């Protein structure tokens, strides 16, 4: 299923940076020339099976259906806003307030080491209908790590997300988009980058983030933002206004990935 989606996205966006691949098995030496490769999920249990749900994982309340809007991406053009490097008590909280008020879904690529003490933020994300995904433990450049260390970065973060939310991540975003085809398997995650990068971490300027986002976004886009910068949070209302003016509906990454069609290319 993930492979089909990934191939679809390659066809849909041949010229963009978006690369989505399923991480399923260790790449054998020589098997990969360069770039990104799709692999089927292993049919047998891997050495890194999903951690079991533990008794400490308390069930979350069912999100109210009106918490965020759920547009049908088969009918309206959709985009996914993604927020990396959090959670942060101040800026992420403010962003969630804003998204909740606008009934806007988003996807959060969190760092594992920032979860302890911020479990309530992750619970709130899920309760509101947001997605929580894996951005590694502490943001290393994965291509500089040994394969075992890469696995550790990903697995520990998965475990923290499950502990805080009761839900397994489905996507992994490697820091900086850096991924070596010579490393890793993990837990059936889909490797997901982006196609719109307003460089909010560099500009730290509301107007620049708004302009850079809205000038590049298209139906099916995945937008890279960071919920640790106040200027990024400041930019979100205008970004949402701009998307709405173009008839682009924000959805979560999973909703975008599984919509099965991008009819407004
Ligand atoms: Ni990051």
Short description, anyone?
This protein has 265 residues and is of the alpha/beta class.
Could you list the spans in which at least 5 consecutive residues all have pLDDT below 50?
1-55, 261-265
- Ligand identities: nickel (II) ion
Mean pLDDT: 79
* Largest sheet entry: 5 strands, parallel
Number of strands: 8
CATH C-level: Alpha Beta
Domain count, please report it: 1
Bulk shape: globular
The fold-level CATH name is TIM Barrel
Structure description:
Residues 1-55 and 261-265 have low confidence and may be disordered. The protein has 265 residues and is α/β, with parallel strands linked by helices. It has one domain: Alpha-Beta Barrel (TIM Barrel). The strands form 2 sheets. Strands 2, 3, 4, 7 and 8 form a 5-stranded parallel beta sheet that branches. Strands 1-6-5 form a 3-stranded mixed beta sheet. It has helices at 2-12, 91-101, 119-128, 147-165, 200-203, 206-214, 230-245, 253-257; strands at residues 20-22, 78-84, 107-110, 131-134, 171-172, 190-192, 222-226, 249-251. Strand 2 (78-84), helix 2 and strand 3 form a beta-alpha-beta unit. It has 8 helices and 8 strands, in the order αββαβαβαββααβαβα. The structure holds nickel (II) ion. Nickel (II) ion (NI) binds at residues 84-85, 135, 139, 175. Nickel (II) ion is lined by residues 84-85, 135, 139, 175.
Which helices and strands appear, and what pairs or packs with what?
Layout: H1 2-12, E1 20-22, E2 78-84, H2 91-101, E3 107-110, H3 119-128, E4 131-134, H4 147-165, E5 171-172, E6 190-192, H5 200-203, H6 206-214, E7 222-226, H7 230-245, E8 249-251, H8 253-257
Parallel strand pairs: 2-3, 2-7, 2-8, 3-4, 5-6
Antiparallel strand pairs: 1-6
Bound molecules: nickel (II) ion.
